[in-house]
Amino acid sequence: MIPAIPSKTAAKPASRGAFIVLEGVDRCGKTTQASLLIKHLVGLGLAAVAMRFPDRTTMVGDLINQYLQSKSELDDRAVHLLFSANRWEAAPALRKTLIDDGANIICDRYAHSGVAFSSSKPSLEDNLDWCRACDVGLPAPDAIIFLDIAQEEAEQRGGYGGERYEKKEMQQRVRKRFSQLQEMDEKDGRIPWFIVNAAQTIEEVQIEINEIVEKTVEKVQSEEQPVGLLWKEETKG
Ligand code: NYM
Ligand code: MG
């Protein structure tokens, strides 16, 4: 018998991971739910990796952080492009996690936040297409879980922090933008949205999210579709 030659590369995973994005206005509970979700998936024996945007740990992320904390001023378009660049710089690792490692990604905010927040600024309110353009072609989420909460309720949760955008009128505009983006994705038919009432208790929200995510993971595993390209037709390249 010929002995098997040990492979130098890790075995290819049985299927790619699912790319799940949690979205919503500030103080909707995304960050809490993202970490509960990771624990739940790991408990089920599924590989799960947390990601978040903005990722403030990179050079680009540091510029974003300074801007959000009002330590610097930037043109609205310039900072929008930085948020997008912050996703593009993470895209190779994101793909590797999904495809080579076969791990699921739970991502706290992504491109929809980018568009919803920037296009809620007066200077960009008529430039939705421009706001979307720089994120076209990024790895596309397999599901968007939108934690929906009225601005009044979100505000009651210990109040907003002191960062830029954490103001009542801005948050109201952002919520409307999110619903416009949801309609656009629904017409397009590629990225499914799941709306969860985030005014419920942490446990109630968690139960709904777990169910959505388990179904999405099963779908990704059984359909064997490649990772999609955000807001773009073809899936190659
Ligand atoms: N934000 C987030 C944007 O304006 N554009 C983006 O592309 C992303 C990912 O950053 N108010 C805004 C939304 C938030 C702020 O995010 C900081 P977080 O999740 O609070 O750290
Ligand atoms: Mg925040």
UniProtKB/TrEMBL annotation:
Does this UniProt record's set of keywords contain Cell wall biogenesis/degradation? no
Q: List the EC numbers from the record.
A: 2.7.4.9
Q: InterPro entries given for it?
A: P-loop_NTPase (IPR027417), Thymidylate_kin-like_dom (IPR039430), Thymidylate_kin_CS (IPR018095), Thymidylate_kinase (IPR018094)
State the top-level EC class. transferase
Write out the entry's keywords from A to Z.
ATP-binding, Kinase, Nucleotide biosynthesis, Nucleotide-binding, Transferase
Coiled coil spans:
none
Please list the GO terms describing molecular function. ATP binding; dTMP kinase activity; nucleoside diphosphate kinase activity
User: What GO biological process, any one, is recorded here?
Assistant: dTTP biosynthetic process
The residue ranges of the Thymidylate kinase-like domain are: 22-209
> Per UniProt, what is one Pfam family of this protein?
Thymidylate_kin
The entry sums up its family as follows:
Belongs to the thymidylate kinase family.
Q: What is this protein called?
A: Thymidylate kinase
Organism of this sequence: Fragilariopsis cylindrus CCMP1102
